[in-house]
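Quick one, probably user error.
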């Protein structure tokens, strides 16, 4: 175990030590650290909670194929030890050594995309990450890339034009020319675990599952984190001083994905964006839900294990995982056990994960082609918003038009994501018709007592839940209202 965080900034290796009572602390965010340096004040703090994108920076890491993978992240949600082994790129780094603007910066100038100085650096970094990944992005890809960058003044048209106009700007830039050197520099950083103790606070970043379980045994009360998009808010918004943290983001084994004929397996630290990329090729209901999960900067850090770990009643993966019959893999000192998602969720933000265990993966079975699964998210705006109500439905309709197995899973309707069991039983063996669905909708109202809050009243939530079921029926039943369409899975954000 080492106690120095090593990363690349301004093209050079930086060794960052932590001392008791000194600065930075282990929960200092990357944003705070960068703004404490003389040459990186372009990165701005707007909200400190992942909502505005003013703090966007780009991280580069070896991609496993000899190149580098670039992703935009919100630096306000990144605890400093999480940058170990990565290159940090800020807006100040984009000009080339001769002082010329980077292609995305020039496109912003040409298209009059530069508006206020607060948001523009973050916008530029999001577009930079996009152009390091795609040479000629389509409009919807540009829009997706900047969905996490809020502008409250003149709007997005000129920014989108800049994103479209910067074609090829990522391919021949100075980062491309220097990629080999940076790649080797990053690989020279030891991947051993980190253990940092400063002023009574302990930050452990193990490199293996075994080390993480050891840390868990030694400190059962330590806060476990993976992407920290949920946990970081405890520090940045609630000003909590977390005495001990076990950070799983450095465990390569937890970032693995596997596919078999029977199932998809995602390690707990696979990011939501990586899950979405895979799901687009085989789990469309999940891919559709993840397309409206946070923003690109959030999806690039947030993990599937973390989403399950929050056990939030509005966790967006959870209703879909329930409908897909997914299982959560838990690893502890006694070995490995697997639980259906519903058994994993024991109450409001409570899971069945024991204090000597970790969530190590999520297994999602492939769905037979005669079963239809669709997912829906209703929120106050399409992008970067949390659910008011979410739902995922699964139905198999027999050749004679009757329901043979239904799962109706809802988020935002109770203290945890829950199935409407009585309505599911009601549907069993009944014809999949408008009449049946009308009766099911009436019964659904008795199954939940949703809360009333700023996002929606109880009666609004109940009406949304009923109408989502109707929508599902309308989308999946044939013209005569009797037979389900034969599509295996459907998507709906
Ligand atoms: C701006 C913003 C937008 C968001 N939008 C959405 C959204 O649209 N939909 C949505 O569902 N969520 C959203 N979230 C919430 C959050 O991003 C997700 O819940 C995310 O998946 C959490 O993953 P993480 O790895 O960052 O979690 P972390 O913060 O690392 O952990 C979350 C919880 O899970 C526990 N945990 C994490 N990993 C493990 C593990 N391997 N074993 C045991 N326990 C573990 C932690 O102890 C903690 O309690 C948003 C958050 C922000 C800040
Ligand atoms: S400061 Fe708003 S997203 Fe980070
Ligand atoms: S660019 Fe800052 S509010 Fe529009």
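Nope, works fine. Designed sequence:
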């Amino acid at each position: 175990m080492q106690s120095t965080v090593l990363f690349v900034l301004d093209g050079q290796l930086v060794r960052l030590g932590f001392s008791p009572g000194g600065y930075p602390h282990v929960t200092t965010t990357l944003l705070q650290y960068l703004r404490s340096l003389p040459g990186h004040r372009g990165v701005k703090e707007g909200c400190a909670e992942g909502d505005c994108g003013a703090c966007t920076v780009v991280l580069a890491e070896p991609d496993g194929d000899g190149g580098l993978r670039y992703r935009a992240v919100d630096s306000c949600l990144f605890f400093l030890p999480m940058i170990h082994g990565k290159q940090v790129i800020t807006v100040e780094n984009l000009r080339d050594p001769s002082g010329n603007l980077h292609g995305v910066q020039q496109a912003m100038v040409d298209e009059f995309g530069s508006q206020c100085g607060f948001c523009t650096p973050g916008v530029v970094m999001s577009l930079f990450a996009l152009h390091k990944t795609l040479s000629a992005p389509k409009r919807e890809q540009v829009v997706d890339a900047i969905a996490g960058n809020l502008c409250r003044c003149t709007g997005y048209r000129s920014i989108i034009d800049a994103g479209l106009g910067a074609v090829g700007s990522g391919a021949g830039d100075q980062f491309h020319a220097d990629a080999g050197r940076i790649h080797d520099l990053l690989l020279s950083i030891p991947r051993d675990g980190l253990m940092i103790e400063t002023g009574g606070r302990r930050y452990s970043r193990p490199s293996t599952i075994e080390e993480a379980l050891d840390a868990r045994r030694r400190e059962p009360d330590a806060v476990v984190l993976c992407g920290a998009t949920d946990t970081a808010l405890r520090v940045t918004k609630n000003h909590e001083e977390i005495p001990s943290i076990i950070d799983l983001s450095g465990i390569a084994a937890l970032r693995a994905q596997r596919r078999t004929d029977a199932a998809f397996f995602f390690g707990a630290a696979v990011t939501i964006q990586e899950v979405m990329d895979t799901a687009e090729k085989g789990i469309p209901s999940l891919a559709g839900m993840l397309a409206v999960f946070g923003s690109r900067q959030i999806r690039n850090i947030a993990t599937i294990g973390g989403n399950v770990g929050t056990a939030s009643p509005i966790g967006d993966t959870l209703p879909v995982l329930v409908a897909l019959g997914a299982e959560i893999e838990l690893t502890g000192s006694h070995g490995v056990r697997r639980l259906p998602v519903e058994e994993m969720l024991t109450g409001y933000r409570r899971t069945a994960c024991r204090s000597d265990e970790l969530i190590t993966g999520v297994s999602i079975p492939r769905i037979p082609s005669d079963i239809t699964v669709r997912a829906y998210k209703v929120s106050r705006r399409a992008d970067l918003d949390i659910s008011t109500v979410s739902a995922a439905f699964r139905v198999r309709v027999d050749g004679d038009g009757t329901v043979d197995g239904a799962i109706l899973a809802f988020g935002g309707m109770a203290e945890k994501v829950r199935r409407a069991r009585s309505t599911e039983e009601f549907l069993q063996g009944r014809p999949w018709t408008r009449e049946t669905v009308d009766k099911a909708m009436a019964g659904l109202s008795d199954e939940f007592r949703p809360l009333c809050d700023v996002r929606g009243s109880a009666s609004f939530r109940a009406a949304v839940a009923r109408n989502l079921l109707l929508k599902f029926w309308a989308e999946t039943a044939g013209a005569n209202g009797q037979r389900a369409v034969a599509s295996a899975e459907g998507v709906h954000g």
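The chain has a mean pLDDT of 94.
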